[in-house]
Amino acid sequence: MTQQCLHLPEVLRLIFGGLSTKKDMLSAALACHAFLEAALDEIWHSIVLFRPLISCLPTDTWETREETPPISTNKLNVVGTHTGRSQEIFGGHGHTTILSPEFLQALEVATHLQRGILSPLVTQLDWNPSSYQLLLKTFPSFSLFLGPIDRTEALRIGICSSIRTQVDALRYILNYLPSLKALSISNKTSQGDPFVRECGYLTSSPWHNLETLSTSDLPEHLIPCLSTLPRLASLTLYEPKIPLLYTSLPLGEGQIRTVPPHGFSSLRTLDITSSSVHATGFLQRLHPRNQIRDLTLRFDYALDNSDDEIGIIEYRNKAQLLVQTIHAHLNSLCLRELDVYDEICEEFEEPFESAAQMLDISPLFKFNELRIMKLSLNDGVGLTAAQVPLVHQSWPKIETLELENAFAGRQPHIDHVHFLEIATKCRSLRTLTLSFDASRVGEGDRDSATAVCTKTLYVGHSPIESPSLVISFLMTHFSELKVLHNDRSESDPPTEYEERWQVVSRAINDQ
């Protein structure tokens, strides 16, 4: 009876579902003949090109060097024996081991130029090498791993739009796989055919099944087309070319829109990386009835003149327009996660008078369903004392709240009492990033304990006078606290505040 059970696919899937590494699976394959085929299927289910292929080959068919050794094609048929089991093939960023063009051509000859012969079961294919040169060497043999039309669901591919043969190949691939559920196309060159450079492939198919799309350089005129994709649930945009519709909010409900209410009907996750205001331009084209739940915006632009007050003001105006646009064009009943940050974050020891004014985040208080709120911008983000009660009233379900202040010399508008009020009344809050004036903590602030469930605190550039009083304050009220961080530059000597917070951090983190 036991032997019969071991031949049941359902039982074998349960057995191998409990094995976490390929090494464990290999041990199981060698331990029992009944496990062999099922174990090999699991071992080869996901592979990273090209090392697994090389391991299949006789040692006299390859060697690692600049020149390519002579290749005998009649010894290469063994490759398909195991790669034919693979359902996920990854050859993207970080994988620099490649086969020479001669070797790949020999594989094509050995397999009689059959498309997808090395991956008849593949459902997910990643072919996005990290460099231009790697792409040039591997793209001609891409068809070896192009899976069957009725199985391939996900495709991630890099392309040089300036090379006509690659563009033509991409056209063929997308026509061959019209039922894709996930598509990611990365253009390795700034010039080239508009089919790639201007996302012309988005109009090459109705894409009825497409659920996830990642693309770069999206032009404005394709937004209406994109909004009609019936199943598009996740959209990632790199450097979209979308100008602003307005630089100040339109009055009343007469907002300028290009997408009808039913546009982007299935979109739930939106992620935009931009070095300019084009992220705001895309948001300005959304209808407020959209169903977006998760919004992530990444910027990689620094202040044009970090020592120039004009540069700071211009940056703040852009950031404030973004906040107002989010308020006007995102649905308050749906938005759950908001993450906005500048990847080139600069710090300023002595802010200008205008920089002492914080970004106004009050327009975001309308989003009552937020669970995660992260704002990290060069302009600095914080709260006023008057806004503190609005935090738990407006965001009653908040779990992560991160409001980062980039200005080291800016005095926070709230103290430890406000800080404790936020942590106490936001019952679901587990991670809090917020600068506050800890220099006002006194002996009386540890008399009565408060039930606070926050586990991680990030205090930024918060002023502090007495580490011992702050330690007592935190240990009294933050009984669940596990980790405390503060801003600390590794390249510069610590400031007096940083040294004091390090004392507090060691006391909290080591308990």
Please tell me about this protein's structure:
This protein has 511 residues and is α/β, with parallel strands linked by helices. It is 29% helix and 14% strand. It contains 17 helices and 15 strands. A 15-stranded parallel β-sheet has the order 1-2-3-4-5-6-7-8-9-10-11-12-13-14-15. Helix 3 packs antiparallel against helix 4, helix 14 packs parallel to helix 15 and helix 16 runs parallel beside helix 17. The protein is globular.
How would you sum up this structure in a few lines?
By secondary structure, the chain is of the alpha/beta class.
Structural class: alpha/beta
Q: Mean of residue pLDDT?
A: 77
Rg from Cα = 28 Å
Strand fraction band? 5-15%
Distance between the termini: 54 Å
Regions with little confidence, pLDDT below 50 for 5+ residues: 66-82, 348-355
Query: Strand arrangement, largest sheet?
Result: 1-2-3-4-5-6-7-8-9-10-11-12-13-14-15
Task: Give the count of helical stretches.
Answer: 17
The biggest beta sheet reads: 15 strands, parallel
Which range best describes the helical content: under 10%, 10-25%, 25-40%, 40-55%, 55-70% or over 70%? 25-40%
* Gross morphology: globular
Number of beta strands: 15
Which structural traits does this protein have?
511 residues; alpha/beta; 15 strands; 29% helix; 14% strand
